[in-house]
Amino acid sequence: MEPDFSPLDEFLGDDFDGYLISADGSDSNQLYLSGFDAPDPYTTLYTPDGIHLLVSTLEYGRAKKESRADTISRLADYDFRDKYTEYGPIAGKAETIAEFLADHDVTSVATPADFPLAIGDALREDGLSVEAETEDVLTKIRAVKTDEEIEHIRDAQESNEAAMRAAEDLIRAAAVADDGTLSYEGETLTSERVREEIEITLLRNGCALDETIVACGADAADPHDRGSGPLRADEAIIVDIFPRDKETKYNGDMTRTFVKGTPTPEIREWYDLTEAAFDAALDAIEAGATGADVHAAVCDVYEDAGENTLRADPTAETGFIHSTGHGVGLDVHELPSVSQADEELEAGHVITIEPGLYDPDIGGVRIEDLVVVTEDGYENLTDYPVELVLE
Amino acid sequence: MEPDFSPLDEFLGDDFDGYLISADGSDSNQLYLSGFDAPDPYTTLYTPDGIHLLVSTLEYGRAKKESRADTISRLADYDFRDKYTEYGPIAGKAETIAEFLADHDVTSVATPADFPLAIGDALREDGLSVEAETEDVLTKIRAVKTDEEIEHIRDAQESNEAAMRAAEDLIRAAAVADDGTLSYEGETLTSERVREEIEITLLRNGCALDETIVACGADAADPHDRGSGPLRADEAIIVDIFPRDKETKYNGDMTRTFVKGTPTPEIREWYDLTEAAFDAALDAIEAGATGADVHAAVCDVYEDAGENTLRADPTAETGFIHSTGHGVGLDVHELPSVSQADEELEAGHVITIEPGLYDPDIGGVRIEDLVVVTEDGYENLTDYPVELVLE
Predict the structure, then answer these.
(1) How far is B344 from B293, CA to CA, in rounded Å?
(2) What is the set of domains in chain B, with CATH numbers?
(3) C-alpha to C-alpha distance for B314 and B310, rounded to whole angstroms
(4) What is the pLDDT of residues A167-219, one digit of tens each?
(5) Number of residue pairs across A and B with CB atoms under 8 Å?
(6) Peptidase M24 domain: from which residue to which, for each copy (chains A, B) (predicted)?
(7) Is the ipTM of this complex over 0.85?
(8) Which of the residues A117, A194, A242, A245 would you substitute to probe the B interface, choosing the one with the greatest number of B C-beta atoms within 10 Å?
(9) CA angle at residue B25 from B20 to B27, to 5 degrees?
């Protein structure tokens, strides 16, 4: 099942012969367009005729098996080694790419905004027209998922559910020490310990992740704080997990907020309000609505209850101080933005919905699911209870 | 302890007012020059006056605490939001950077080769001189480690030793089934199972990794094969681990080859030869020697014993078919290259030494340690036995 690259054809139109990427497989545009992952930079050319790859001899066999390219060339086909020796690594690479482009009758290319400046300039010196596009044309294509991509994301989210379950079980099983800290099997239960449990569970489910948030009390009031130290009873603990499946490279994303013991009245109120905002956001989702519509649904709930938002006060440091959500795919943050930025939602967009409230004096609360936009609503890719109190 | 940036001053000379990076913290040049890590792109300017950071308001407080910058500016100081709205994300960013550069009296900059083309072009439209340098000036500075960096790498390598120990223990404890496959606690012992043990051990030691090689038999004959399926007795199992410390971001790297049972005579001979090549390489290391000298020491041992090498035959597909080593630091592959490329070794370079032999009919053998180059030799950062047979 191939993505629909027709917006790229439209973009190229009469202005460009092709779209050119030079990056390694950690670049999601490269991974997506080539259907290939390699640790060193390689070159992908899109033309109305198809997708053309230029790789090292080392990667050639694997590229033939794994990539979505219609044609595959080797650096050695263009005597890259000789060019490297004569012109150096960058100019030698550019000379090689220039000959590869000529073979495909390409004299003008558009590139992603982050195309390497040195290669772009060297191609220009070889007489090619090279223009970095700033419309995110490929990133916008990536935002609309195929059924296969949605299944990959659902699988990553299933692993995420297992990890969240492991974290919840650990917090639930904890005892409360006299000083209010949680303890498990005789040791103080810390953010770090819960994070380790999450990471090991994800590993066993074939996922990796760089960061996980397990933040308690005032830590949880900073949406970017990963959390550290002992977890405490009666305080809100935000657990935000965004794993990447190692095989498919697609991400999941989910947040739950837990209290072990009895939440303060403020946390209870915030949680109920956040769940209402969460439901309001979900109700607002459908193809044709905008991210701004969905974001507005959240802001309305919060503002009607007297809470501060960035919409009401762009300098707010407490209250609802981030956007409602973002696209998820090969990148854990990608298009579309579910925020005041006025981006229209399309069927196949996979987005997070993650309202939350923050104040260092109270703590933080956030609820986040991952959903796919459909023609008349959404399908939730997350199957995990929304429940604050762990008895 | 600050790195020695004087080669950057020399490089800038009269040609450039400053060195400019726009990238997120996953870019090692950015991480190194700024001393700061953030998930979204930010801007670092090096001038003979110091290091100057331009970050979002969100990152400002943390940048003040964590970065090595002498001055820190916020995007908001230059009305980035207004520029974003007026000019769009790229041109708006470039306008902002242009004003930031003007504040530092900078009108001409050098950038790394992979500087984003769109921003480079937009800065040029604002009248700035922007040139991507292809001498790897910053990457070469990064190659020479400070004492603090060496300690970070030593720590990562210690975690690596714990992971290698866990892998070795698992293979050692395995039973041999009637069909020659290894089994552990009643289940077939696979590459995947050993890899999981390695990854969990690394997690518990604060390290992450994307890839680990646990490759047996013919799998091990392809240096890029991660390995899969059952491990077998009497065959060579290559275990290559390159973890990254999550806190410091520095890498370790080590390879061992194990046989559970009795190695074939070819594997035994290859192992002894590889150990001899490994020792010869170590003996050749000192400041002032070149990577080519060290690589030649390995090739001499192999060729004298009648084995094929890429030096003797650049199209070789069996024998010693890769370079002897590479630098390790914030990137697991960085300068200097320990290969036919004629790069001089300097005190403070941290390099791998990893000779090996490969043939699909025999399997693969590789031994790898991580060492720091000193004035009169090297210090080995690896403390792990070199031993083939696990009884």
Answers:
(1) 9
(2) 6-142 (3.40.350.10), 146-390 (3.90.230.10)
(3) 4
(4) 999 999 999 999 999 999 999 999 999 999 999 999 999 998 778 999 999 99
(5) 72
(6) 151-375
(7) yes
(8) A117
(9) 65
